Structure formats: structure tokens, C-alpha cells
Amino acid sequence: MTKPGDGEVGDSGTWKASAESKDKAKKLRIYAIVLWLAGIAVEIGAIFGLLLNDSILTEKATVDDKGVLTSTNGFPTWAFALLIALLVIDGILVVIGSMLWKKANEYDPASKADTVRFFVQNQLGAFIPIIAFLPIIILIFLNKNMDKTQKGVAGAVGIVVALAAVVLGIDFNPESVEKYTAEKQAVIQLLGKDEVFWAGGGQVYHVCGNVPDLSDSTVESGKTADAVAAGKPRLTLKLESELKACNRAVPNNVDEIVAAIRDVQQGKSEEQVLPSPDWTGVDNAPSGGAIDTLNDAIKDVKDAA
């Protein structure tokens, strides 16, 4: 069996994004900003090219209440169809940008300790659609050349697409430095060092490389920060079975530790320091220098919290 505490703990403090993660996040954020700007450009083009462009208006003959034939400017059908198309295109660009932005935050999350940055960085995708849609929606309803049906349809499309973009842009359970630190601490407490395993598929990393989830795959290993850089932002919750698969000691309170990790992952808890493993009576449990090493690692995380 392998005892927790074998090897060196290494970097046991607050989780930090790797250089690879930061590079990936930077590129994704650039792509997101470009798409957001493209969406806003589509909005501006629709406003000045269609809604505020009198040169595209067609002469429309109408009869008033008194039976008098009058001539008014009308919003052409082709322009109305193009407006609807541009609203949809605007929404697609904005939503894809928001998805890329949220993915970037998985690679390089903000800390909850920095309240303003944490909120802005994680919810920016919900505010961009307001910029990309509110002005054009207002101008649609204020347009004097569109008839009631055109205003109603275009306005409804704009509102629906805008609301969908806002909802899809919200990050209801954003990643955070604290969340990743809690998972890193759990790994160190159970294994004695920051070393995990992952493969190409899935969204989680593992505490053992010899598990069914990694079978028939090329298994990679590294620190928790390396796993995040590889697109695995969460620690598996199958801790008991995985520890047994690698002949490692399983603490008595493994279920309590798993429950605490689950709460952190689901945003129900902001605890950065998880319950300490209970090794009482456990075969091959860490002792002596090994337990001292684990306690030092836990202390490092507590001091950083």
C-alpha cells in the first residue's frame, strides 16, 4: 500500500493558475471580446443602416379616417427581414463570446476575496447583451416609419434574443481560486502531495491513475493546476473507490470530505479548508513524519485562506 505523506508536498498554499492556463485564458478572452465587439458592430450597422437611414424608405400610399389619400414613408419589407436577421446574428455573436469568456474563467478564475473583480469577471457576459441590444430595441419601438406589426415582431425578437443572451451569459456557479484551493488541499491531505491524474475525456481529475474512468485512455499526471490547464476543472467525488484502487489508505470520514468538496463545487460553501482526514484505526494510515508533513500542508492552506 501507498501511505499518504509519501514524497514531497511541494507547493501546498493557495492554488495558482499555471502559465499554460493563463495563456489559454488570455486567448479565449481576446476571442470573446472580438465577438462581443462584432455583435455591437452589427447593432450599430442595423441602427444607422436601417432604422436611421431615411434613404431606404419607400413611399406608401394610405387613406386616413376622412378618406383622404396621403403619401407616407414606409419601412421596406427587405429592410425588416434584414433587421430580424441582424438581431439573430447579434445574439449568436454575443452568446458565443460569453461562452468563451466563461471558459476562460475556468482556466484562470478570480478570487472571491476580490469582490468587485470576482463579480465583474464572472458576470460580464450578462452585461454585454444589454449594450448590444438595449439601444436597438428602444429605437425599434420609437421608429416612426415601421408599422405596428413590424415594430411588434422586431421588438419581440430583439427582447427574446437579448434575454436569452443575458441568461446564457450569467455564470450561476463560477469557478474561484478558493474552490480550486479547497480541492487541491483535499488532494494533498489524502495523497501527501499535489499530484493528480486525468485523460482526454471528461471534466474531472482523479487521485488514482488506475481507475475505470481512465481505462483505454492515455493517462497524464501533474499538479491540480496542470489538470485545470488540461481542461479538467473539478476533482472527482469517487475518492473512496479511487483510493482503494491505488491501495491507498482511506480515512474514516471520507464521506464527510466528499460532501464538503461537493458543497464547494456546487457553490453551497465557500470553505477553503476542508475537514481533516480521520486516520484512527485505518490500516497503513500516515504516522510520524508523514502525518507531520500532512499537517504542515494543511496549516499552509489555512494560513493562506
TrEMBL record:
Domain of life of the native organism: Bacteria
Protein name per UniProt: Uncharacterized protein
Transmembrane annotation, as ranges: 30-52, 78-101, 122-141, 153-170
Region of interest (Disordered), ranges: 268-293
Keywords (A to Z) from UniProt: Membrane, Transmembrane, Transmembrane helix
